[in-house]
Amino acid sequence: MENTPRNTLISKYFAPQEIKEALELLSEYGEEIKIIAGGTDLLVQYYDRLYEIAGWLDLKNLAELKKISILEPYMSIGAMVTHTQLEKSPDIKKHFPILSQAAAEIGSPQIRNRGTLGGNIVNASPAGDLLSPLIAYGAKFELLSLNEKTVVSSEQFFIGPKKTVLRTDQLLTRIILPWPGQNCYSSWIKVGRRRALAISTIALAMVVKMTEDNRIIQEVKVCLSSVAPTPLEIKEVREEMRGKSFNQLNFDKLGQIVEDKTLPIDDIRGTKEYRKEVAKRITIHCLEEIYNCWRRKCL
Amino acid sequence: MSLNKLTIEFVINGRKRKVETTPSTRLLDLIRDNLCLTGTKEGCGKGECGACTVIMNNELVASCLVLAPQANGAEITTIEGVGRGKNLDPIQEAFMETGAIQCGFCTPGMVLAAKKLLQENPQPSIEEIKRGISGNLCRCTGYQKIIEAINLAAKRLSQQAKRREDADE
After folding, report:
1. Whole-prediction pTM value?
2. pLDDT at residue A245 above 70?
3. Per the CB < 8 Å rule, is A43 touching B24?
């Protein structure tokens, strides 16, 4: 290895103890090095060509990235937090229930134990199960490089199938979730071929925030996976719902807006027509669930 | 391409091992080829079938989706570490009694998934058993007998635990 020029890797493996060390490696090797967290996407993607990977940057020793912490006025989740941790964390279950629920429905126990939140984000699959709930909760991502810290909103992070704004010298370190507040209701539905190990045919996350008196809808986010090149927020639904009370809403009409605004494709998991139809149905279903939850709270 | 070798250390089935490997070797290949523990199987190689399941650091993982260096310092249990020789684990006994084994290819992974499930949840419901083995495919049994086996093992293990408790008192 002594004669190898700088910036060239020949099958090397790094597992730094400090974030700074990881950032140094990224700045030196950039595109050549592959960041590995749980490996549940990466090793599938490179199944028959692992030899192509010149260098590995394993994040397993970065303890800081495995923490879930409550920091008023937000919650911080380390990028290395696994789906199992998200599923079991009482804080996430309580304050961000559909993130926990979506994590519980990913893959299988084996996948959930290794796969991470950060990995799910940077993999940026149009079918990524955690992405819709993150956007619906207004998550922000902290990106570190050797010279700077940037915070990007989840809405702006995804730019295409498997494409994000993350540069090769940057590391996703934390996911920042603003507190949802007292009167926040959420619902999540994933439709797949079977319950375990299914890549979503379509999934929907809906978060509705009410005013302090719990009567008027203040903020709404409806976000879908597997219906567009990136997770898709349907902003028109927000416009239609904001400032109204539940009794003034027409659920069928809202479902129709979602159906009209999705841009799905035909693939092995479902046709375009099927996805559009299901988008409408699950929108109505989520609205009903949220409405019932709100009504129970009002009584 | 020359491969950069590295040495890793871990505890497997209670035994400390030091092995030379490469950065892109999968834990599955290390276990089968370097350590000759061929009870761990390769099915799909993509984390979907669970045949390569092992317990690593007290968690169920698909060893085909773990790089060998990622297991440096880890504690691993493979099927060879469950029961000793003819002294079988109650889960293995229950699998034999209920006929939960046909071709046997999924069995090592299934037994480990069951073992982990019963450690965390000693008295699982049928639904919980199904979820516990949802990462393991079986193409022979139709799962019914596997579920029965795990249910039987759970009952016996909790009876054993109860007897031990009574004896202590």
Report:
1. 0.94
2. yes
3. no
